[in-house]
Amino acid sequence: MHQINNASLLSGLSEQGSHTLTITNPATGEVLGHVPTVSESALQDMIEAAHQGQKAWAKTTAKHRAQCLNRWFQLIHDNQDDLARIMTLEQGKPLAEAKGEVAYGASFIEWFAEEAKRTYGETIPGHTADRRLMTIKQPIGVACAITPWNFPIAMITRKAAPALAAGCSFIVKPSELTPLSALAITELAYQAGIPRDILKVVCSDNARMIGQIFTASPLIRKLSFTGSTRVGKLLMEQCADTVKRTSMELGGNAPFIVFDDADIPAAIQGAIASKFRNAGQTCVCANRFYVHSRIYDDFVAQFHATINKLVTGNGLDEGVTIGPVINQAAKDKVTHLINQACQQGATQLGEPIPADGLFVPPQILVNVDHQMDIVQQEIFGPVAPVIKFDSDEALIEMANDTPYGLAAYFYSQNIKRIWKVAEALEYGMVGINEGIISTEVAPFGGVKESGIGREGAKQGIDEYMEIKYLCFGGINE
């Protein structure tokens, strides 16, 4: 088994700047290490090297690229425990969740290793007797990405794997809060035979500088971003000058709906999985709960009893199910939203939030109104506001009353209702009697202001390819 150590993690960063990032454990405040940041000139050099290297990488066979990706997948699998520990230390999520993310992130590499060999063109019936028409797919060129801290491995592999499989080179800026996970998996990619100029990690706490260089460079032809809608809109605007291809996975405000014919125990388990995974810090997690008035009290009682069994603490400790939020700003936001909701009439069910540290025990809010700020904003914390509804029509209106459209969830056993609601919800992904929907084999992405493009599935590799039409003339019958 290949080993991951600090020296190998930092081996590719010698050309970067003298300024460093201080990486801390959100559960303990302990300093984990320091990572060099990239300078403007070094980043420009990397983009040029990626541009030159991509030409050779694109000429390799799909089978060769697939073999490199499969070796990368296997190395991540072999180092799952080490990678999970790195992730828990710098990001905070419980170790079991971190192991799950490592496996989930690796699944995209395995998937796109296979898709590399299936980037088929097509033949088109000619419009005249002397012509033959066809299309081929070619890599778009240099691709770059900006990824968040909440899934520091999966958000990279979901973008890097299809880019590399397509024949693109790939430069990623991970969050300044969680660069170690990115550096670790990239070191394994190099061990797997992926050239260093083809896959690069750039570390910086100057997001504006990185974004401006990525979006302005004429050598970069694709930008993929996962983050806030506000920043995504800005990046799209900046990409317009060079007409870059963009993929945007932006904010969410997922409704979790429980109809009166639902299997309540199943809905509770789905709610726990969707809402409290990663301490509620996921873009697809349930943000607001709508429960039919006939079962509202029963659902809340069972929900409350179940979350009381969750254990908040250091993700490395045995039995912990909810780790810390990522930083003080995140805790302050969640606390503010709870306090504001209570001032607006909501009632808080849950342990008091401790003043010290970054831990937020799971919370339920009842007596919540659809118009409250906590319902209209993305919470990004372990808080579940629960709202009553009486009719399907009113429910659909409330569920769609948001500029976001990433994920939605609902529980019902009525097949007519299931079809009606699934078609009416204005979301890119809908979980029906299921609280966990992400998988490498299905397209991930949103509608409205939650983004454009899809990641994963067969659609994911098309985001990194151009379709070229070939017209062969002068062919005699």
TrEMBL record:
Keywords: Oxidoreductase. Coiled coil: none annotated. GO terms for biological process: gamma-aminobutyric acid catabolic process. Its EC number is 1.2.1.16. SUPFAM superfamilies: ALDH-like. It is an enzyme of class 1 (oxidoreductase). It comes from the Bacteria. Residues 18-469 form the Aldehyde dehydrogenase domain. GO terms for molecular function: succinate-semialdehyde dehydrogenase (NAD+) activity. InterPro entries: Ald_DH/histidinol_DH (IPR016161), Ald_DH_C (IPR016163), Ald_DH_CS_CYS (IPR016160), Ald_DH_CS_GLU (IPR029510), Ald_DH_N (IPR016162), Aldehyde_DH_dom (IPR015590), Aldehyde_DH_Superfamily (IPR050740), Succ_semiAld_DH (IPR010102). The active site is at E249. Belongs to the aldehyde dehydrogenase family. This is Succinate-semialdehyde dehydrogenase. It comes from Photobacterium ganghwense.
